[in-house]
Description:
By secondary structure, the protein is α+β, with helices and mostly antiparallel strands. The protein is 35% helix and 22% strand. The chain is built from two helices and four strands, in the order E-H-E-E-E-H. It has helices at residues 19-31, 65-79, and strands at residues 3-7, 36-40, 54-57, 60-63. It has a four-stranded mixed sheet, with helices on one face. Helix 1 links the parallel strand 1 (3-7) and strand 2. Helix 1 (19-31) packs parallel to helix 2 (65-79). The radius of gyration is 12 Å and the shape is globular.
Amino acid sequence: MPTELYIYGGAFGLPSIDPQCLALISYMSIVSHQEFSIIECNDTGFSPTGELPMLHDGKNWIAGANRIIAYLAKIVRDLFA
């Protein structure tokens, strides 16, 4: 199953209206060594912490930009350890 990034929907030609979601899309495009799908989801009730962006990576659900970046950084460190 590919990694899924849940974000607020887009407007004005942008993939999301939320700055954290936009930053995370850019970060994952540059740093992530795996493919990911972007899923528009404006319902924060879907998130375990009530916030977006949210990452679904296999069995892991991580919500919040800072927690997602920390999670991805750990994966990259583990790949090169």
